[in-house]
């Protein structure tokens, strides 16, 4: 049985994760962490998730539950995630990280923990998205250097704070890598005013923020006469939460390394 604690347990993903852990027969809820000083400290995390009392109350510091859990699941912000990695390194814990929007320096800092903290880090934990990444690799290899323009379009709910989404960037990276390109050189994130026609090798990104959209991603391969679109649509956060719990069970058996969902799923 993997003992899981959830950081940001009162958040959108946090509450969904409580449900997902409850539904998993090989995982158990060992704790939930809210922001320091939050009025939700002391509240039963089952009640936060709409499940009724589960007998585990939210705490506002990891130290309070350090002996209770094996794996931390963290869907919060880059700064909080890095602080939690330091805690895991100090206390011999494992971690699953779903947080997106990390800057390059934060990403480097995260990867630096790979030799001390067994972790799974993925901008999208859904099985479907990770299969989609494989399909994109194949499509890019067949089409990308044959005159097909590549564009990534994503849509999310109005509260999302980072853009483009971590998943859109990951899809772009997979396509770029398959073609020997980089997003630094070929990614185009803004087209405003007289920006001229697109170049052959650019990979364009477009973002929609509206209402309650859980997460939609399309990668388009377009040329004269045809267009291929590979699309993934998430209709519930449960798909990410179930993937994260699966990753937590998997990482419980790892001794080191910074892994992604492809490793977890054996893709
Ligand atoms: P949210 O704002 O609803 O939840 C974040 C929670 O973290 C909030 O409740 C906040 O109070 C809490 N928090 C902040 N600082 C904290 C601290 N120091 N200690 C404990 N809790 C703290 O956001 P969300 O929609 O749940 O998304 C969270 C992150 O997960 C975002 O980066 C989002 O892009 C990412 N995300 C990833 C996936 C994936 O599959 N990898 C899926 C969905 C969302």
From TrEMBL:
Keyword terms of this UniProt record: Amino-acid biosynthesis, Cytoplasm, Diaminopimelate biosynthesis, Lysine biosynthesis, NAD, NADP, Oxidoreductase
Residues at the active site: 156 (proton donor/acceptor), 160 (proton donor)
Alphabetized InterPro entries for the sequence: DapB_C, DapB_N, DapB_N_CS, DHDPR_bac, NAD(P)-bd_dom_sf
Pfam families attached to this UniProt entry: DapB_C, DapB_N
Example GO biological process: diaminopimelate biosynthetic process
Gene Ontology molecular function terms on file: 4-hydroxy-tetrahydrodipicolinate reductase; NAD binding; NADP binding; oxidoreductase activity, acting on CH or CH2 groups, NAD or NADP as acceptor
Primary subcellular site in the record, as a coarse category: cytoplasm
Domain (Dihydrodipicolinate reductase N-terminal) ranges: 3-125
GO CC annotation terms, alphabetical: cytosol
Catalytic activity annotation: (S)-2,3,4,5-tetrahydrodipicolinate + NAD(+) + H2O = (2S,4S)-4-hydroxy-2,3,4,5-tetrahydrodipicolinate + NADH + H(+); (S)-2,3,4,5-tetrahydrodipicolinate + NADP(+) + H2O = (2S,4S)-4-hydroxy-2,3,4,5-tetrahydrodipicolinate + NADPH + H(+)
Amino-acid positions noted as binding NADP(+) in the UniProt annotation, renumbered to this chain: 36
Superkingdom to which the source organism belongs: Bacteria
Residues annotated as domain Dihydrodipicolinate reductase C-terminal: 128-265
Record EC number: 1.17.1.8
Quaternary state and interactors: Homotetramer.
Function recorded in the entry: Catalyzes the conversion of 4-hydroxy-tetrahydrodipicolinate (HTPA) to tetrahydrodipicolinate.
Family: Belongs to the DapB family.
Protein name as catalogued: 4-hydroxy-tetrahydrodipicolinate reductase
Organism: Candidatus Halomonas stercoripullorum
